[in-house]
C-alpha cells in the first residue's frame, strides 16, 4: 500500500476526518489545462508522443492512466481552492503539489502543474484577484516560479534545500535556500520572521500551501534535517498566520521520501491535524 491509501485510512481511523469530509474530483477540463500548459505540450501528452528525452525528464514512461491521474489530481487542487474560498477556510488535496512542471514540459515526476492550473483558472474566472503560493517542499518550485515569473497577481515563495534538485532554480518572487543539515531552529525562525510580514504586505485572496514533508531529517532525498515536531510546527504556523488574516488555504501534500512509510504518513497526517486544530 502507498501513502495515498494509508494517509486517508489513518485520518479516518483516528477521527481527524470523517467519510463526509471527502470529495472526489473529476478529470480536469481541457480548457483549464490550456490556461497554463502550451497546446503543443498538451497535444504530446494526449497523443502519447513525448520524445524519449521529454519522458525521461519527467521520470516515468507516460501512459494514458498517468495522464488521467494527473488530471484528477489537478482538478482536486482546484476543488480544494474553491472549497477553501467558499466557506471551508481550508481544504487539502491528499496528493498534488507537482511544482516541477513547466508550461511546455514536465520534469521531476510532475506532468501537470496543479497549483499553477488552479491559480490561473481562478484568476481567469475572476474568483480571485491575487494569490500567494507558499511552497515549503524541500525542492524549489522551479515550474511554478517560471510559469508566474511575469504574473504580478501571483506571489511565489519557496523555502528549499539550496543544494537540492533542481540545479537550475528560476527565481520565485522570494526564494530561501537553506544549507544542508538545517534543523528546526533555523528553519522555523526564518519562517516566523518572514511569513507574517509577507502575508500582510501581499494580502492575497487565496493561499496555496505546498506542504512537502521531504524537509525531514529522515528523508532520503531532502538535504535538510527538520524533526517531525518541527515539520508539524511549520504547518501549524502557516495555518495560524492564514487564519488570523482570514485567508483561505488550499493545501497540496508534495513530496515525502523517508525510509519508513510510517514516518511519511505521520508527517502528512500532521498537516491535516494542524489544519483541523487551527481552523475547526
Ligand atoms: Zn520535494
Describe the 3D structure.
There is one protein chain. The chain has 280 residues and is an alpha/beta fold. The protein has a single domain, classed as Arginase, Chain A, CATH 3.40.800. The chain contains ten helices and six strands. It has helices spanning 3-14, 30-34, 39-46, 52-58, 64-88, 114-125, 142-147, 184-202, 228-244, 261-279, and strands at residues 90-93, 131-135, 154-161, 174-178, 206-210, 249-252. A six-stranded parallel β-sheet has the order 1-6-5-2-3-4, with helices on both faces. Helix 1 crosses helix 10 and helix 8 (184-202) packs parallel to helix 9 (228-244). The model has no long low-confidence stretch (mean pLDDT 96). The structure holds zinc ion. Zinc ion (ZN) binds at residues 137-139, 212, 214, 254-255. Zinc ion binds at residues 137-139, 212, 214, 254-255.
Instruction: Output the CATH homologous superfamily.
Output: Histone deacetylase domain
Structural class: alpha/beta
Oligomer: single chain
CATH architecture: 3-Layer(aba) Sandwich
Ligand species: zinc ion
Our count of domains comes out at 1
Provide a compact summary of the structure.
The protein is of the alpha/beta class. It contains ten helices and six strands; from the N terminus they run H-H-H-H-H-E-H-E-H-E-E-H-E-H-E-H.
Amino acid at each position: 500500500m502507498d501513502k495515498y491509501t494509508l494517509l486517508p485510512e489513518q485520518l479516518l481511523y483516528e477521527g481527524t476526518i470523517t467519510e463526509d469530509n471527502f470529495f472526489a474530483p473529476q478529470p480536469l477540463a481541457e480548457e483549464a489545462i490550456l490556461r497554463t500548459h502550451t497546446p503543443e505540450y498538451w497535444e504530446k501528452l494526449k497523443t502519447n508522443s513525448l520524445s524519449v528525452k521529454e519522458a525521461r525528464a519527467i521520470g516515468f514512461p507516460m501512459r494514458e492512466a498517468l495522464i488521467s491521474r494527473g488530471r484528477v489530481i489537478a482538478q482536486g487542487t482546484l476543488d480544494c481552492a474553491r472549497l477553501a474560498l467558499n466557506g471551508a477556510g481550508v481544504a487539502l488535496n491528499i496528493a498534488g503539489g507537482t511544482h516541477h512542471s513547466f508550461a511546455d514540459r514536465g520534469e521531476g515526476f510532475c506532468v501537470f502543474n496543479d497549483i499553477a492550473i488552479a491559480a490561473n483558472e481562478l484568476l481567469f474566472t475572476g474568483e480571485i484577484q491575487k494569490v500567494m503560493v507558499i511552497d515549503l517542499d524541500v525542492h524549489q518550485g522551479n515550474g511554478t516560479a517560471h510559469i508566474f515569473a511575469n504574473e504580478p497577481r501571483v506571489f511565489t515563495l519557496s523555502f528549499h534545500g539550496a543544494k537540492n534538485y533542481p540545479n537550475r532554480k528560476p527565481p520565485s518572487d522570494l526564494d530561501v535556500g537553506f544549507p544542508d543539515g538545517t534543523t528546526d531552529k533555523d528553519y522555523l525562525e526564518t519562517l516566523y520572521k518572514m511569513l507574517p510580514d509577507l502575508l500582510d504586505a501581499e494580502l492575497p485572496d487565496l493561499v496555496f500551501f505546498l506542504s512537502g514533508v521531504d524537509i525531514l531529517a529522515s528523508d532520503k532525498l531532502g538535504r535538510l534535517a527538520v524533526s517531525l515536531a518541527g515539520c508539524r510546527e511549520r504547518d501549524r504556523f502557516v495555518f495560524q498566520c492564514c487564519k488570523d488574516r482570514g485567508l483561505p488555504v488550499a493545501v497540496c501534500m508534495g513530496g515525502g521520501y523517508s525510509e519508513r512509510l510510517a514516518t511519511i504518513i505521520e508527517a502528512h497526517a500532521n498537516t491535516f491535524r494542524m489544519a483541523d486544530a487551527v481552523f475547526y
